[in-house]
Amino acid sequence: MSSHLLVSCNSSRHGSLLLLHFGQSWWLRTFSTRARIGSTLRESYRLLQLPADESVSPERAKESYLRLAKLYHPDSGMPTADAALFTRVEEAYRSVLAHHSEARCREAVQDEDEDPSTGAAPQHRHYLSYEGVGSGTPSQRERQYRHFRADRAAEQVTDYRQREHERAAAAEGALVERDVRQRSRSIKITQAVERLVEDLIQESMARGDFRNLSGAGKPLNKFQRNPYADPMTHNLNRILLDNGYQPPWALTQRDIREAADRIRGRLLDGRVGLGEALGPTERLRWEELCAHAEEELAKVNKKVDSYNLIVPMLHMQMVHFSLAREVRRAEEAAGRRRVERLQRRKEERKRLNAAYIAAKSAGAKRGLLSWMQSWLK
Q1: Contact (CB, 8 A) for 130 and 149
Q2: Of 2, 69, 221, 274, which has the highest C-beta tally within 10 A?
Q3: pLDDT tens per residue, range 123-173
Q4: CA-CA distance, 339 to 39, in Å (whole number)?
Q5: Which phi and psi (to 5°) does residue 121 adopt?
Q6: pTM exceeding the 0.90 threshold for the entire prediction
Q7: DSSP-based three-state secondary structure for 51
Q8: Chain centroid, CA 375 distance in Å
Q9: Are 89 and 47 in contact (CB under 8 A)?
Q10: CB atoms within 10 A of CB 335
Q11: DSSP code per residue over 309-372
Q12: Within 10 Å of residue 22's Cβ, how many Cβ atoms?
């Protein structure tokens, strides 16, 4: 495109402005595009050991920066390492790159202004790069396109997460549906069993199997135990108890107590059998017995955990069994048993002595009586 120059001309009455079209003028373009290098930028070139003109390429500036970084970087291990000087070199390198970037942008803008084919460019040429995104200079469009790609990637990630959540929800819905089907099937089976039991009860009533019951024809004692309980619940519980039904927590409690009694009995019998003073052999046998009891107590403690989860009242919960406490109890009980055994032995000895003395005196009396009878004859 031709350059425009406004000149002033004198006329008879007024000065008029004329628009003159000049061709491409190399000196005007050079004056308008050549960047004026300031003192700060000149200092940056000096730090990078480069000539202060635009003939230096970015590749050459990078090579110089890398060479100086190897000399002045704090972690390079070189004797010339200097953190402050390296920071200045890095800032100078950035200034030089910014200067070259500005120079390329000015040249690109002027080339577009001077290109005679710019005005006749097809309208769709703007959309041949960067997917038609952005407006302005190529560098501005490039930045806008990077932002556009970042936003599009974020939207794609959001869509993917939403699809994953929907897929997980669908899978969870399938699991819930399967649980509902299984629950309905179990309910149907339960109802079938209840109908069968009801039919058997009706058949037994028709045969007269319930006519010989002890409470036949008598009123039910609804409030015999707890007057604050629901009568229906109380009667149902009483019927269950009369027929031998026990709740699961009661059965678990019974198993725990029976297992604990067995362990305590084995510990007590073993401690009593080993004697009061333990030698090396007795000590080894006692330790083996304690190890076996510890394994059994671990199983019992698992039952205690299950029992605490199903017991209906909080004050009925149980604590874990401790081996140390059971061993101490076994030793104390063994001492008491030994004392009781000694007392029983003393009492038995006294009873035997008394019986022997009585038998002996009775024998003497019978001998004297037989002698007198024989003498009288």
Answers
A1: no
A2: 274
A3: 445 455 677 777 778 888 888 888 888 888 888 888 888 888 888 878 777
A4: 110
A5: -65, 145
A6: no
A7: coil
A8: 108
A9: yes
A10: 13
A11: HH-SSGGG--PPP-HHHHHHHHHHHHHHHHHHHHHHHHHHHHHHHHHHHHHHHHHHHHHHHHHH
A12: 10
Nearest to 83 by CA among 93, 75, 91: 75
Count the neighbouring beta carbons within 10 Å of the beta carbon of residue 99: 19
- Which candidate, 255, 269, 266, 263, places its Cα nearest to that of 321? 263
Nearest CA among 365, 247, 233 for reference residue 312: 247
Q: Which residues contact 296 (CB under 8 A, 6 or more apart)?
A: 259, 262, 263
Contacts of 129 (CB under 8 A, 6+ apart): 141
DSSP code at position 37:
P
Kindly state the tokens that stand for 232. Answer: 């229906």
> Following DSSP, what letter does each residue of 60-126 receive, concatenated?
HHHHHHHHHHHHH-TTS--TT--HHHHHHHHHHHHHHHHHHHHHHHHHHHHHHHH-TTSTT--GGGG
Amino acid, res. 227: P
Q: Which long-range contacts (CB under 8 A, 24 or more apart) does 149-154 make?
A: none
pLDDT tens digits for range 201-251: 888 888 877 777 777 777 666 546 667 778 888 788 878 878 878 888 888
> How far lies 24's CA from each of 6, 48, 113, 192, in Å?
16, 36, 12, 103
Using alpha carbons, select from 112, 77, 101, 71 the residue that is nearest to residue 89. Answer: 71
The tokens of 108 are what? 């690109």
